[in-house]
Amino acid sequence: MCCVAGSRCALEKLQRERSTLDITGVLFVVLAIGVVGGGLAVVTLRNVIHAAIAMMVCFGSLAGMYALLGAPIVAAAQVLIYLGAISVLIIFAIMLTQAGDASLRAPFHRQVPFAALAALIVVGLIGWAVFQTDWGTITATAAVAVNLQGLATALFTDYALPFEILSLLLLAAIIGAIFLARRPEEDERAG
Amino acid sequence: MGLAGYLIVSTVLFAIGAFGFMARRNAILMLICIELMLNAVNLSLVAFNAYRPTASVNGAIFALMIMAVAAAEATVGLALIIAIIRTRQTAEVDEYHDLKE
Fold this sequence. Notes:
The structure holds 2 protein chains of 2 kinds. Chain A is mainly alpha-helical.
């Protein structure tokens, strides 16, 4: 009896493991469709606003993929920076600059066939390399979660100098953006 | 799926971004395509980090730093594009041909 209960328990555990694996696989497929479909919509839609919204779908699916890979801090940063900041910035820029349907005529250059060929060559070469490489004994369940405390420690010890350089870069970018986006007549009024 | 699935998604996204950058005529869409390519690289970094045999945080830190650089790049790039559109009244990059003439 005990043995039967034990084996049933082990069977249930196995089934539970398989079902979580299946959920991970299903989530991966759904998110991959979101990422690739969003990317394809970005490059094919004629309306620039629609393309920007497809970009937000793509970035949101990528945030889900980061969470699936056990990196919730990267997923949170993706939502904050890309979905929250960069998407809004890009949509603001589109609304500031696109007058009516000015962008609705021919959205592509004449070199579309060459661009498609180059993209297909990239996919072929890297895909071939990925499938040819022996990734060792690492299995699908071996995805290791990012340790948040270790990340913070590494960021402020090993990566302290890059962190500070990045702060300087962001400051320079802010000042540069303000200088570039200022209207010329404000110069004269100030001077 | 494993590591190969994530790498294939990353490759396809990078190729889509490269195609869009070469094929689209709108300057803002070209910037969006650069962001797609940066995100593809980020995905491959996080995937490699997750499938390391020992726990590591380096891939997550690389991804966060690429995000910060991408934010700076988007800021300056959009400011440049807005300044150009203000003087040339168009977002189509093949209308910017002053140096050719």
